[in-house]
Amino acid sequence: MAKSKFRPLHDRVVVRRVESEEKTAGGIIIPDTAKEKPQEGEVVAVGSGARDEAGKLVPLDVKAGDRVLFGKWSGTEVKLNGEDLLIMKESDIMGIIG
């Protein structure tokens, strides 16, 4: 993806889903109708961070390029520059792969 002009606000993160395997370990091809949406993705952009109770800016732990795991129903699906992406809060991300 070309450098996006979209910058999420606060503690929000833009994630591109990483497509899952087309076949099982045994070689069975999984049809599109049976595929689960991947719960793994690559961080495309991050906001500046959230504010704590004292009003101090707390930077995010994730950064652009990180591979992350997130919940099945996490985020809001959006289309930016013709690409399907997810916008979610950093708290929806379970961890960084890697």
Automatic annotation (TrEMBL):
Q: Read off the lineage from the record.
A: Bacteria, Pseudomonadati, Pseudomonadota, Alphaproteobacteria, Hyphomicrobiales
Give the highest taxon in the source lineage.
Answer: Bacteria
Predominant localisation class: cytoplasm
**Origin species:** Neoaquamicrobium sediminum
PANTHER family the UniProt entry points to: 10 KDA HEAT SHOCK PROTEIN, CO-CHAPERONIN GROES
**Signal sequence, start to end:** none
Please state which protein family the record places this protein in: Belongs to the GroES chaperonin family.
Q: Which UniProt keywords apply?
A: Chaperone, Cytoplasm
Compartment(s) of residence: Cytoplasm
InterPro entries from the UniProt entry: Chaperonin_GroES, Chaperonin_GroES_sf, Chaprnonin_Cpn10_CS, GroES-like_sf
Listed SUPFAM superfamilies? GroES-like
Q: Is Chaperone among the key words of this record?
A: yes
Q: Which Pfam families match?
A: Cpn10
Subunit structure comment from the entry: Heptamer of 7 subunits arranged in a ring. Interacts with the chaperonin GroEL.
Family annotation (SMART domains): Cpn10
**What does this protein's UniProt record list under function?**
Together with the chaperonin GroEL, plays an essential role in assisting protein folding. The GroEL-GroES system forms a nano-cage that allows encapsulation of the non-native substrate proteins and provides a physical environment optimized to promote and accelerate protein folding. GroES binds to the apical surface of the GroEL ring, thereby capping the opening of the GroEL channel.
This one is known as: Co-chaperonin GroES
